Amino acid sequence: MRTEWTPQDLPGQAFYRLLTAVVVPRPIAWVSTTSESGVDNLAPHSFFTVACTDPAIVQFTSVGRKDSLRNAEATGEFVVNLAPEGLREQVNATGTPYPHDVSEFDAVGLARETSRAVRPPRVADSPVALECVLHSTVRLGDSTVVFGRVVHAAVAGEVLVDGHPEATRLRPLARLGRDEWSALGEVSALERLPYRP
User: Fold this and answer.
1) What is the CATH number of the domain that holds 21?
2) Domain that holds residue 108
3) From CA 158, how far away is CA 156, in angstroms rounded?
4) Does residue 87 belong to any structural domain of this protein?
5) Burial annotation 146-183 (CB, 10 A radius, 16+ → b, else e)
6) pTM of the full predicted structure?
7) Number of domains present in the structure of the chain
């Protein structure tokens, strides 16, 4: 027997909490941006995925108008850094609603690394950085989906196996429900089955 709800049954944030508890695990876009006045921002966004392969476009959702969204709209650039398990505390701390003129890099004590193709810096200790130029945004209710065309990718050599990023070396964090986080569990390979008439 199932328990069933509509969004009207669970007012306020309750249906949001239901969605984030069942759409799991969610990868984290650790988005770095730079404001027009030069303040570097860094924030985790757990509504994140690949949107298109050709051209290469990734997307993240800003629930509300966060600095990541404002800066990306104003400057047209952002970087998606992989959020690794070893930086869990720092990833969480960058979700604190600091004032616009405070850089999360400095507040949390994270080192910057200069990007190759865009102005916002990379997180130096993140194993992957996807440098993006803003493609478009779509407003959906209280949220905005941000699409970025990847113009440069940088991957740390220690996470590569035969030139390919290895998940067990990346050790990506993921968000679950409530205040729950997840690390990479067991990894197994399963090839797709070709259609055979």
Assistant:
1) 2.30.110.10
2) 14-178
3) 6
4) yes
5) bbbbbbeebbbeebeeeeeeeeeebbbbbbbeeeebee
6) 0.95
7) 1
Specify the 3-state DSSP secondary structure of 116: coil
φ, ψ for residue 108 (rounded to 5)?
Answer: -95, -15
- Classify residue 194: in a domain, yes or no: no
**3 domain residue, yes or no:** no
Q: Which amino acid is at 179?
A: D
Map 125-177 to HEC letters.
Answer: CCCEEEEEEEEEEEEECCEEEEEEEEEEEEECHHHEECCEECHHHHCECEECC
The SS3 call for residue 70 is helix
Structure tokens at 102: 């405070």
Residues in the chain: 197
pLDDT digits (tens, 9 = 90+) for 14-56: 999 999 999 999 999 999 999 999 999 999 999 999 999 999 9
Residue 131, strand partner residues: 79, 152
**Distance separating alpha carbons of residues 15 and 180, to the nearest angstrom:** 17
